Structure formats: C-alpha cells, structure tokens
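Run log, item B.
One chain of 367 residues. Sequence copied directly from the ordering sheet:
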Amino acid sequence: MPGRLEQAGVLPGPAEISKTEPQPGGIGFTTRLEIACLANLFLGTPTRILMRVATFKAERFSVLERQTAGIDWELFLPEGLKDSKLTIQVTTRKSRLYHTDAVAERIRPQVLNRLKETTGGSNCDTGHSPQTLMVRAENDRFALSLDMSGSPLYKRGIKTRVIQAPLRETLGFAILKRLEFSRQDILMDPMCGSGTFALEAAMMQADAPPGIFRTFAFESWPSFKNNSFRHAKDKITDQVVTPPEAAIFASDLDQSAVTHLKETKSGHPVFSSIQVACENFFDITPPATSHGVVVLNPPYGKRLGNDMDINVFFREIGRKLAGDFKGYRACVIYPEKHLADALGLHLTPMPLFHGGLDLFAGIGKIA
C-alpha cells in the first residue's frame, strides 16, 4: 500500500503505519485516520477494518456506563444517527460483565444520548449508512471499536448477484497474490462460478484498488475529510491502466453463471480483459505460455451431486492439469486434505476457512 499511495500523490512521504502486531483474528496497527480510510480502499484481504475508540477496565455496569458516556462519539458517529442504524456487537471472555445483551443495553443509550447532547439534539434521519460498534471484554478490560468499513470488504461493489457457494473476493485476492499474479500473466479460470478470480485478477492487472467501486461506513463520520478522500480516489482512478488484451479466460458449464459474469463485467473498462465462455474444463486447450496461471474452485458436496465420486473427479482434474497446463502456476481448492493425493500434482496445501468450512488451497507449479 505505501508505494501506491506515494505514486498517487496522496501522501508526502511513506505511509505512516506503525506498531503492527498480530492479534486474535487480525492485525493491529497505528496510523492517522486519513491513512486508515485509505487502507479500506487499498487492502485486498481484510474482511473489515476497525478503529479503536477506547479501552478501559469495568467490573460494574455503573463504571461501564460512565466510561462509555465520556467518549467523544460526536467526532465519529453522524449527527441524527437513529437507534435502528446503530448495531452493537459484544463478545466477552472471563469478565464479570459477561452477559452480552446486558452489556449492549447499557452501552447503547450512553452513545446515543451523548451524540444527541453534543450535536444539538437533532433526531432527524439524515440517511447515513448503518454504523457498527464492536465491544470486546476480556478479563474485565473493555475495548470499543467502530467498524470503518460498513459492509464486509469482500463486497467490492461489483457483483449484483452471486451463484451458489461463491468464493469470497478477499480469498481470491490472497490466492492470486500467493501465486504472484501480475500484468505479464495469462489467467485461466475454467470453473469460474461468479467470477471472483477473474474479476480480482482484472483489477490487479489494471492497478485498480479493491475498494474503488464501493463506499464505506466512515464516509458518514464528522471527522471524515471527504474532499481529501475524493481527491485521492480521483487521482487513483486516473492512474488505473488499460488492462492487457484477452489476458483472462473465464468459463463454466453453468450458463447462468456465464451470463451473470458477462453482465457484471460489461460497462467497466477495468474488466475488458476478461473473456467469458460456457465451456467444459476438460475440453479446454489453454494457451502455450511461460506466464500462465490456472485457478480452480471445483464443485464439491451438494454442488457435485451424488452421481460423481469426488476422488475420481479430482483425479481427473489432476490429469487434465498435468497433461495440458504444464508450466502453469496453479491453485486448486479442495475440501478434504486427502484429495491432494487424488490430484497428484504435489501442490503445497494452504489452509482456508470459508463459509464455515475448513478447506485447502493447493498451490504450486505444474511440472
């Protein structure tokens, strides 16, 4: 991200991100609000970005209420925010105040009353986007954070609908990064479904940030500098490059999936490099190239049906890849670790957690 920000002229120097450290469920970092806003725009793998508002110790509800009421909510939450547009999500662990609903019920009026008192008592519905306050209590220490992103960041603002069991964009982005996908590469996505891999790849080749087509919850905050952010987005948009011609080939047996992907990519020059067809993976002849990448998210479970043995299916996938995709860098997603043996490609397994399932992404070069 720092290099892109400097190229866009958004920052006078290196991005001011410090104190990065792994935390349960994510990574913590320290920066200015302006940079955190841009992180939502540029980062391709997070589900959401939270801004820590306060931390304190509270063993009694009276202390929780007093501490919450003393926070400057008017700096972050929009004037006129309605109760129905404020979501409070609470998790507790080893704390005296352990009842999550009770914690939320004590916090909510403190936030809304403080906001009403400091913004002149307005209660009009100004059409602001919903806001989410995340509350985590552990060993009587409370951490209150506002969700900057709004809808999860894997919702890029591109797809209007998805087919069954779609791959999240954040996972598609991470896999393409792991494969070191670049503008010099050709991508084959022969079981494309909703087109996650193809769409993410097109944006990467066009140098378009993952969040360029969507909005964020922080855009309703009083402390948000809209002119500065809009200026940054305009400069970034101006730097989006023309994607390589016919560099991404997406196909699927499901005609409805193919039709949907064609509709999704139409009207966006960023996606002009995507070629879409209704074809069987086993009938495809890929281009001969030293810069090829192939990604597959094959059907499994109910999507595969009862007539096909999954081991046989993945064995055939492995044979096809070994026979026709030699030299390609590859990723194959599979639901059970033993299926790597059926593939027979000696790919390195990368654990994935998606849709409540523990999956694997086999990654490597097809010899």
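Observations after the first pass:
- Residues 92 and 137 are 5 Å apart (CA to CA).
- The longest strand covers residues 357-365.
Flagged for discussion on Thursday.
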